[in-house]
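Morning F.,

Quick status update on the modeling queue. The single chain you submitted on Monday has been processed. Sequence for confirmation:
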Amino acid sequence: MFIIRKSLDRGHFDYGWLSTYHTFSFSAYYDPKHVSFRSLRVINEDIVVPNEGFDTHPHKDMEIITYIIDGELTHTDSTGTASKIRRGDVQVMTAGTGVEHSEYNRSSKPVHLLQVWITPEKNGLKPSYAEKNFPEKLRKNSLYLIVSDDGASLKINQDVKVYSSILEKDHRLSYNIQSGRGAWIQVISGELHVQDMILVKGDGVSIEDESHIGLLAKEKSEFLLFDLG
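Structure tokens below.
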């Protein structure tokens, strides 16, 4: 079963300094039909103008993934981490028993990112932070593992694998889903055909009770694929 979540149907708020789109219910946006998908709790697409950002705020018992689409984001947190992440960089943070962090755009152009929250396998974990750069050449015309629970890439504490892909026009890929698992595809740019469905920038699709996904880029397309237990 494939269910499309169209970009234009997402929650959207424009605060001047921040334009944000919510795939799932978040903060002031609530849609009882779109609260989460399996352990995938949040996919927010954020654009932050220069010299603005998120002041220090707390998180607890959540696995948080930040995926930079364009620009630069400065991150600081209560684990002692201070870092700048850019296009191609991915950061993961286990909020666990509690962490405070801030995220600012200290550059001269907007920063465009996805922030993803995944519910952890258990609460009360020790807070941690990690980041890694994934060059486009690794993700080109492939499904490249960027986050997983087994330490094969950036590690999170949940039975989830996250793949990043940048497909050139007319390139095809396929993905097999193990029995009992589900998948979510989030399109970042381009036009991606998933089976016989057409997805464009900002669209997502949930997939359950299927064993195979066929993917075709009708123009250069970037997307994430979540394989969820």
